[in-house]
Design a protein that fits this description.
With 179 residues, the protein is α/β, with parallel strands linked by helices. It is 32% helix and 17% strand. The chain is built from seven helices and six strands. A six-stranded parallel beta sheet has the order 3-2-1-4-5-6, sandwiched between helices. The chain is globular and about 45 Å long.
Length: 179
């Protein structure tokens, strides 16, 4: 069976928490491939800070050495916000089983996602722990100890929380474009 873990998000910017999730997913023997999928635009946001193509480029550099990882340009190439259910339908043309990876902070809004009922029938959820967020035992839980978020990083860029391969590029971009 060809199984994937779909790890989508804004990745604005990519950080060590994202890297920790990918590393933890890599250790799950029932997952053949991890598809990292940056959004063109998060459906719950009106804009992104870094352009989609730049975030895609950063992710490709950050995960180039990870042998089970594919960074997909599918959503970025659509040039619009893409509901997760549409991405899952696209991926089901190639793969048999999809584990959808979300952060525990997304659990509260999950039922508001476009096509949630259909989505929940097509995927198995893996929930990455976040500080102070409880995860129900009904979900596969991925224990992640990184205590950082992209929004915190945009406010105060700290090289210690960024993947080494792309840290300088990220710092330069956000310092030059911080309003």
């Amino acid at each position: 069976m060809r199984t994937i873990a779909l790890f989508g998000g804004s990745f604005d910017p990519p950080h060590l928490g994202h890297e920790a999730i990918v590393k933890a997913l890599s250790e799950l023997n029932y997952i053949d491939k991890i598809v990292v999928m940056p959004t063109f635009l998060n459906p719950f946001k009106s804009s992104s800070f870094a352009p989609a193509k730049l975030r895609l480029k950063w992710l490709k550099k950050a995960f180039v050495a990870f042998n089970k990882v594919e960074v997909s340009s599918y959503e970025v190439s659509q040039n619009k916000s893409v509901p997760t259910v549409n991405t899952v339908e696209f991926l089901l043309e190639t793969y048999e089983k999809i584990y959808l990876v979300i952060g525990a902070d997304n659990l509260a809004s999950l039922e508001h996602w476009h096509g949630f009922d259909e989505l929940s029938q097509k995927v198995t959820l893996i929930v990455a722990t976040r500080e102070k967020k409880e995860v129900s035992q009904e979900f596969i839980t991925l224990k992640i100890d990184e205590k950082i978020s992209s929004s915190e990083l945009r406010e105060k860029i700290d090289i210690n929380y960024l993947p080494k391969k792309i840290a300088k590029e990220i710092i330069k971009y956000y310092k030059e474009n911080n309003e």
